[in-house]
Amino acid sequence: MSYKSDKDLGLVLCTHCNSVFKVEEKICTKCNSELKQREEYSLVKTLSFTIVAMIFLFPANILTMMDVTTLGVSEKSTILDGIVYFFETKSYLIAIVIFFASIIVPIFKLLVLVYLLYTTKYNKTYLAKNATKYYRIIKFIGKWSMIDIFVVALMIVMVQFGNLSNITAGPAAIAFTVVVVSTMLATESFDTRLLWDKD
């Protein structure tokens, strides 16, 4: 791949207004933002948040997501239990949405983050174009990542019937929130310009 990066040309891009300046410039003259040729500690931050998300992904899927108490009888359910329940009650759309939002999307985001880190760490510049596309995908879907927590919150509101039934969020809800926030922070911390650096 034959190209010259901003580093090669002695230029720096303002990530706020996309203006280009000589590397000697420290402040953008158009929007007054600080100019950085590369975000400091970008890889370290992305790696740290990715590891945290990986650790919490397991309890998010194994521990109790909801604890439903009806007439004194408590019933705990995980994310997978909820998906199975909605399939059994023929609420296929809700089941599919929860399956993708709670299981497929977090795993996909983590795989992309690992791919980005690998591509950058080992200077696989021939993968930079595809890696940038994947980055844009996970950045776009990031805002929908909290949908599972919203579903739980909605169900808690909908299924409260006075003293007959009570729903509380389980520890998996906290773990899942940590996963979502960590993947979002990892995505935001990653500087895509690093993908194109040859060294």
How is this structure best described in words?
There is one protein chain. This protein has 199 residues and is mainly alpha-helical. It has two domains: 1-37; 40-196, Butyryl-CoA Dehydrogenase, subunit A, domain 3. The protein has seven helices and five strands, in the order αββαββααααβα. The protein has helices at residues 6-9, 42-62, 79-88, 92-121, 128-141, 147-158, 171-189; strands at 11-13, 20-22, 66-70, 73-77, 165-169. A three-stranded antiparallel sheet has the order 4-3-5. It has a two-stranded antiparallel sheet with strand order 1-2. α2 runs antiparallel to α4 (92-121), α2 packs antiparallel against α7 and α3 packs antiparallel against α4. The longest helix is centred in the middle third of the chain and has 30 residues, at 92-121. The radius of gyration is 22 Å and the shape is elongated.
Can you describe this structure in just a few lines?
The chain contains seven helices and five strands, in the order H-E-E-H-E-E-H-H-H-H-E-H. The protein has helices at residues 6-9, 42-62, 79-88, 92-121, 128-141, 147-158, 171-189, and strands spanning 11-13, 20-22, 66-70, 73-77, 165-169.
The spatial strand order of the largest sheet comes to 4-3-5
The CATH architecture name of the largest domain reads: Up-down Bundle
Shape type: elongated
Sheet with most strands: 3 strands, antiparallel
Tell me the CATH topology of the largest domain: Butyryl-CoA Dehydrogenase, subunit A, domain 3
Distance from first to last alpha carbon: 14 Å
Supply Rg: 22 Å
Beta-strand segment tally: 5
- Tell me the number of structural domains: 2
